[in-house]
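# nightly structure sweep
# worker-07 picked up a monomer target from the shared queue
# config: single-sequence mode, recycle default, output format = structure tokens
# input follows
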Amino acid sequence: MITSFQFGRIPKIIFGAGRLKDLPGVIRQYDKNIILVTGKTSFLASSFGSSFLTRLASEGINYRTVSISGEPSPAMIDKAVADLSDYKAGVVVSIGGGSVLDAGKAISAMLYMKEGITDFLEDVGTREHPGSKIPFIAVPTTSGTGSEATKNSVISQTGINGFKKSLRHDNFVPEVALVDPELTLNCPTSITAASGMDCFTQLTEAYLSTKATPFTDALTYEGLKAVRQSLLKCVVDGSDIEARTGMSFAALTSGIGLANAGLGTVHGIAGSIGGIYQIPHGLLCGTLMGACNTITVRKLRKTGKNNAALKKYASLGRLFLDRENKSDDYLIDWFIEYLNYLTVEMKLPGLKTAGIEEASFNNIIASSSSKNNPLSLEAEELAEVLSIRFI
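# output follows
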């Protein structure tokens, strides 16, 4: 029996290698004056960026650029909005990684607002955003966060009183997500690995989520198939366009999946760490994934609760092992070992190597969440996860 569920809106999706050529025409459907949000140098310095800017000029499209370096902070967004106050744009276009997409999403949402963005952040601000914005077009150049398909923009402020929180509203889903796998070809190996593990984590957590539905399961399972076929190939050979296309599809489905089924403990811990340390989010997800799932599976087996989740773990083992004649327990254990194998294979550092201090564990645990995990993990179990990866 299929139980009742609801499903949020998604953008208009334009997917495929070479589809960047369609972007000027898409932009003109909204306005000829745009705000172009990019990374510090990567896209604009590439051949794709050069030809794109030439196309904008030939199409009579005017632009003001905003350069984003690292994860967007409240100060970064507030400054960008202030600097753009004299420019009448009809659309924001972000071309870059997840941080660039989040920044563009936030800028499009804050251009009409007099207050700073912190006032509207979940669990930090005290005001509810009305959802007013100018249209937003998302063009990812990495295969990771799936921000091109979500309604939230993740904003970070690092330090002792730091946070990693979302600006969120149904209206903030991009009007258009243009996903061109060719734009990921220049992505460095380290970023390919970290963002790919973020994508893998999102798909796995959404698939295992207590909020999952048959609809999200269908999407996330297809995304996980693409991860199995493409992730390691991308890391080994970044020029493999077929593998890059698979990971672009996986990242897109991960965004749709997390928006509708939520995430679990890996992201709960990674978000907490991200409020204290400036460490790439995908790196944290990949580093924590094996340990979090080890503890979760152990607790599922011990308590006998949520056997449906164990069945899903077995299906993940069957998918990645590609073997049918094995018991569920064998497949579950194999999947957990595969996660640990990927951590080593992709040379993801332990928490200590990444720069995390053991003295901050209590603060990390206090602000971590197990929301949507198959079973909630207690403080001592979260401490065990951190200890396993403190190398």
